[in-house]
Amino acid sequence: MFIVIHSLVTSVSLTALESQNATMHFVTEFVLLGFPGQREMQNFFFSLILVVYLLTLLGNGVIVYVVKWDKRLHTPMYILLGNFAFLEIWYISSTVPNMLVTILSETKTISFTGCFLQFYFFFSLGTTECFFLSVMAYDRYLAICRPLHYPSIMTGKLCVILVCVCWVSGFLCYPIPIVLISQLPFCGPNIIDHFVCDPGPLFALACIPAPSTELICYTFNSVIIFGPFLSILGSYTLVLRAVLRIPSRAGQTKAFSTCGSHLMVVSLFYGTLMVMYVSPTSGNPAGMQKIVTLVYSAVTPLLNPLIYSLRNKDMKDALKKLLGLRSNPN
Predict the structure, then answer these.
(1) Which pLDDT score is estimated for 18?
(2) What is the spatial distance between Cα 328 and Cα 322, in angstroms, rounded to a whole number?
(3) Residue 28, SS3?
(4) CA angle (305, 224, 164) in 5-degree steps
(5) Is 295 in contact with 304 (CB distance < 8 Å)?
(6) β-strand partners of 29
(7) Cα–Cα–Cα angle for 233, 239, 245, nearest 5°?
(8) HEC profile of 143-178
């Protein structure tokens, strides 16, 4: 089906181009404008984003190391958390290094191939994050709603399978949309008013309208975003119902605390994601789109390790033990 659609889109594109009876120069690179401003402002953005990047690598790297180092954390919940932190390292690395280079560069160019490679890895890693958040919500549902059956259901084997499914399926979702977009004719201009290669600006640079390809990409984005989101919503609806049935206030507080960190991450990540790729953004200024993209691509990976480590007693104890800060019981 997608091959047929792709053939139709390509044939229509070629026909439209030939009808113009003009010689066109097809672009081999794009210009990422990034953040506007004088050199002083550019240096400020560079320093700020570099600090955010280094802190994100440090925070998530510490979580990965602690989960691997402390045997008490070798449970499904923390194995998922460790993989999620590892994912965040690669997620932010798919855009920020090139963003930093673009800020310092005079030409601010990225090759055609490099643009679509960044597009692929950025969206594939983002899709993988959606799947991980869904699996983590399912893990919390089992732990709270079915505590007696949790050890027999969420076994080490099932946890490994779920982790592998998240990684593999995340990287299998976007090849078709990316191939379709890359086959569109880009004959100039080649200036993208953004700091990443995003489908919206790329569609705007295509020489001809591509409604079929846009529909396919919009459908992919909607399914990938809403599928895991509805799964998360369902899991936490059942969790909330179970927690409200706990007679003691202390029991309710403890149950909510185990889910609070995850809900904060879900709200931050999905809130910005839906604003960018589900709600209509064509009328939004480019500056607003850059801010929203910066939040979910750089700020969220920075906040996640802080949210999980500061709100999780086991993680805080493991960090204290690692740093030799555990208090002497005597």
Answers:
(1) 42
(2) 14
(3) coil
(4) 60
(5) no
(6) 111
(7) 140
(8) HHHCCCCHHHHCCHHHHHHHHHHHHHHHHHCCHHHH
Tokens of 261: 């960190």
- What is the token pair recorded at 323? 């740093």
Convert the pLDDT of each residue in 245-277 to its tens digit. 777 777 677 666 667 777 778 888 888 777 776
What does the alpha-carbon distance between residue 87 and residue 111 come to, in Å, rounded to a whole number?
Answer: 25
Q: Percent of the chain scored above 90 by pLDDT?
A: 28
321's CB contacts (< 8 A; 6+ apart) are 70
Would you say 30 and 112 are in contact if contact means Cβ atoms under 8 Å apart? yes
Cβ 92 vs Cβ 61: under 8 Å? no
CB 107 within 8 A of CB 31: yes
List the chain residues with pLDDT less than 50.
1-25, 281-283, 327-330
Give this prediction's pTM.
0.83
How far apart are the C-alpha atoms of 36 and 33, rounded to whole Å?
A: 7
Dist. CA 77–CA 89, nearest whole Å: 19
Tell how far CA 269 is from the center of its chain: 8
Question: Which residue in the block uniquely carries the two structure tokens 């550019």?
Answer: 42
β-strand pairing of 29-32 with 109-111: antiparallel
What class does CATH assign to 28-312? mainly alpha
The alpha carbon of 116 is separated from its chain's Cα centroid by a whole number of angstroms, namely 16
The full set of domain ranges for the chain reads 28-312
Q: Write the single-letter amino acid at 90.
A: W
